[in-house]
Design goal:
mainly beta; six-stranded antiparallel beta sheet; 2 helices
């Protein structure tokens, strides 16, 4: 069976749904310029001050610290006593906290081993010592810093 459909134009054509609008072409844009990373400011929420003026910046509400963070200013023998994921710092409900992440050699805060004790609050000036090999002073950053 063969079916043939014949389409006929009716006497009345429908008006267009929308009036025709002249479309102008968008201006051609040059290639994207690569930003100079040296000019982008880093917004620090807090920092850990280490020996020799070294600083570890905390630029997010949570950061995990491990061996690779300390290799820049510790001898290799000392750095390798720090676990790959040693401790974390995080900001909740207006306070900073620190938590040891089941590290092998523990984390000290003001001389107290916090290993296995869960998150504990830290305040400006507290001394944090991962594995007891380096002392870091916690500094909370204000809006102007």
């Amino acid at each position: 069976m063969l079916v043939i459909l014949v389409l006929r134009k009716t006497r009345f054509s429908r008006p267009p749904l929308a009036p025709e609008v002249a479309v102008s072409e968008a201006p051609q844009v040059e290639e994207t310029v690569v930003a100079d990373r040296g000019t982008i400011p880093l917004i620090a929420l807090a920092k850990l001050e280490g020996p020799g003026g070294k600083e570890l910046i905390i630029a997010d509400v949570e950061r995990v610290f491990g061996r690779s963070d300390f290799e820049q200013f510790l001898p290799w023998d000392a750095a390798r006593t720090i676990s790959r994921r040693h401790f974390r710092m995080f900001y909740r409900a207006g306070k900073w906290y620190i938590e040891d992440l089941n590290s092998t050699n523990g984390t000290m805060v003001n001389g107290e081993d916090i290993r296995g004790k869960g998150p504990r609050p830290v305040k400006d000036g507290d001394v944090i010592s991962p594995a007891g090999v380096v002392n870091l002073v916690f500094r909370e950053m204000g809006p102007a810093e």
